[in-house]
Amino acid sequence: MxxxxxLLTNPTSGKGKGARYxxxxxxxxxxxxxxxxxxxxxxxxEALDLAKASVTDGVEAxxxxxxxxxxxxxAQVLAGTGVPLGIIPAGTGNDVARYFDLPRKDPVAAADRVxxxxxxxxxxxxxxxxxxxxxxxxxxxxxxxxxxxxxxxPRGQMRYNVATLxxxxxxxxxxxxxxxxxxxxxxxxxxxxVGNGTSYGGGLRITEGAxxxxxxxxxxxxxxxxxxxxIRTYPKLFSGTHTGEPEYEHHRxxxxxxxxxxxxxxxxxxxxxELPMTITCEPGALAVFA
Length: 290
Prior knowledge:
- It contains 8 helices and 15 strands.
- It is α+β, with helices and mostly antiparallel strands.
- It has 2 domains: 4-117, Rossmann fold, CATH 3.40.50; 132-284, Tumour Suppressor Smad4, CATH 2.60.200.
- The strands form 2 sheets. Strands 5, 6, 7, 8, 9, 10, 11, 12, 13, 14 and 15 form an 11-stranded antiparallel sheet that branches. A 4-stranded parallel sheet has the order 2-1-3-4.
């Protein structure tokens, strides 16, 4: 019997790249003998419903063609099910694709990873009933993400860079209270990041050293620093060398509660919720074609 999978596309990902990459990947998947349900929701809610229905019907895998936002949606459906996730990267940041070294500019090569069906089991981070794959941003990074999402220019990573410079003009350090596996910390900080993976925002390696399958979350605090130093430190995020700065603080925990007044968090590039929030690691919650 032929394997049946669902292919869920966000056609607007990457300024239309999602639709183009689907048209390249779909024939490759079908030529390999897969039965493919070609799904496209009119909005996020419909896409979620389509994904849930397919998994309930018993498809062997859910493949998404889009960016980290669509991966985020798929994680809500697949967490704990054992049904694998396939990724045809077609977004702006594509951080999850970076984690698994997936081809980000070749949808046919990405489809070949799905066809090969080699899986890796990884952890997810959970807050309440929601999951995330990459990093939860709370503080300056979340404010930058919100501004970047409102911008139509420039494209790609440069959008985050411009948003960073614009937000620096008015940003002030925030007061955070954290509970790290029962140990309380109070910090005035630029940001707190809770990582399941290493990067967000298109390759910013904020939680450098995080492992996807160690059963732990990586909590990074960037304590108060001057704006000129923040500007100088920002490029180091792309290589992970910011870890040598004295304002950098790193903890590995199974659970963390983060509190700060008026802070809205982002995770996987999506608005995630307001603080306070408790995040736990869910070991082995997701299988990925990698």
